[in-house]
Amino acid sequence: MTTILAIETSCDETSAAVVINGRKVVSCVVASQIQLHRQYGGVFPEMASREHMLAIAPVVREAMAKAGVQWSDLSAIATVNGPGLAGSLLVGVNFAKALAAAHNIPLLGINHMEGHIYANWLQYEGGPETDPAFPLVSLVVSGGHTDLILMEDHLQYRRLGGTIDDAAGEAFDKVARLMGLGYPGGPAIERWSAGGDGTAFDLPRALSVGAYDFSFSGLKTAVLRELQELQRQQGTEVPERGVKLADAGVQEPDPNLPIADLAASFQEALVDALVTKTLRALSDHSAVQLLVAGGVAANSRLRQELLARAQVPVRFPPIRYCTDNAAMMGAAAHYRYLAGHRATLALDVLPGLTLA
Ligand SMILES: Nc1ncnc2c1ncn2[C@@H]1O[C@H](COP(=O)(O)OP(=O)(O)OP(=O)(O)O)[C@@H](O)[C@H]1O
Ligand SMILES: [Mg+2]
């Protein structure tokens, strides 16, 4: 049995969790900086690291208190050490190192992206009773990544393909900004799409890039062109790039434009591309399971389409474990611990760390 204190500080969430056997979340505390970064339309790295410094000690203390465990109960302390923002990662890594040294507890460095995948091992009310089965394909769709990963076993990652330009979450965020829907864009676009017609605009899917690759920059440009064309038809001024409202930091959509239809059409195109390539990866590699991971896994249209079209069981973490949290790091850490991985106090941050 393992009891692991996990720490996550790769971007703009300061989180700590205590996880038993990589499955049972006994506590998970998340301090989100989203309100702070909203005014900048994205994460402001320097402010993020300063906020982590303020939040890390109380967040860890709260996670330990809520779990009701002592330092001597812990099998290991696990921290994210990449990929992510260097200044943010440094806070988690140094705090974990200090705790591990002070309490003489083994230290583990966890890849943030493997954490997103292992969120699918966490138990929750109403969730599946059994662990995911191998070989599996994981569609990792987050703010910074969009990858199709083949796993034949625990901790074995083979990258089949991924985005050649923007990540899916990044595309959601950029398109939302163009339309003046604010930050973060994914939830805003999902909300607006609910009242729109996804077939109203015929937007590109970019299916001809590599077999398991994605490209979203053309889709983003197509949305911009549609917006400019709509404004031209209305006789409103056409800005050089983007929509003036968004560029001016005004987070309000133009009430005269069919924003809901455009949002829904964008969501439809992006989801269609993700699903098409994911289904291909599943069947080409005889995968018995699909795991969806990362912030965009919260998208209900993506969930719906994958569930309807995949021939194998599909799993998504509950929404609270889709976006950044430490519980998912605790799940991955359990398997690293069992495999004998141990980090030393030389553990360093690796902002560009990859999975495969
Ligand atoms: N319901 C939703 N629909 C679509 N996208 C969503 C939804 N909810 C969140 N997102 C997107 O998920 C992203 C955030 O996910 P996550 O926190 O996993 O990314 P990140 O940690 O910033 O990036 P990475 O994990 O690659 O380092 C944002 O781009 C956000 O717009
Ligand atoms: Mg993330």
Secondary-structure blueprint of this entry?
Blueprint: E1 3-8, E2 13-20, E3 24-32, H1 34-38, H2 45-67, E4 76-82, H3 86-103, E5 107-111, H4 112-118, E6 136-141, E7 146-151, E8 158-162, H5 168-178, H6 185-193, H7 217-234, H8 244-247, H9 259-284, E9 289-293, H10 300-309, E10 314-315, H11 327-338
Bound molecules: adenosine-5'-triphosphate (ATP) and magnesium ion (MG).
Adenosine-5'-triphosphate is lined by residues 10-11, 84, 112, 116, 142-145, 169, 172-173, 184-187, 190, 294-296, 298-299, 323-324.
Task: Give an overview in words.
The longest helix has 26 residues, at 259-284. The strands form two sheets. This protein has a five-stranded mixed sheet, with helices on both faces. A five-stranded mixed sheet has the order 8-7-6-9-10, with helices on both faces. The protein folds into two domains: 3-127 and 321-338, Nucleotidyltransferase, domain 5 (2-Layer Sandwich), CATH 3.30.420.40; 136-317, ATPase, nucleotide binding domain (Nucleotidyltransferase, domain 5, 2-Layer Sandwich). It has helices at residues 34-38, 45-67, 86-103, 112-118, 168-178, 185-193, 217-234, 244-247, 259-284, 300-309, 327-338; strands at 3-8, 13-20, 24-32, 76-82, 107-111, 136-141, 146-151, 158-162, 289-293, 314-315. It has 356 residues and is of the alpha/beta class. It is globular. Helix 5 runs parallel beside helix 7 (217-234), helix 5 (168-178) runs antiparallel to helix 9 (259-284) and helix 6 (185-193) packs across helix 9. The protein is 40% helix and 17% strand. It contains eleven helices and ten strands. The protein starts with a strand and ends in an 18-residue tail after the last helix. Adenosine-5'-triphosphate binds at residues 10-11, 84, 112, 116, 142-145, 169, 172-173, 184-187, 190, 294-296, 298-299, 323-324.
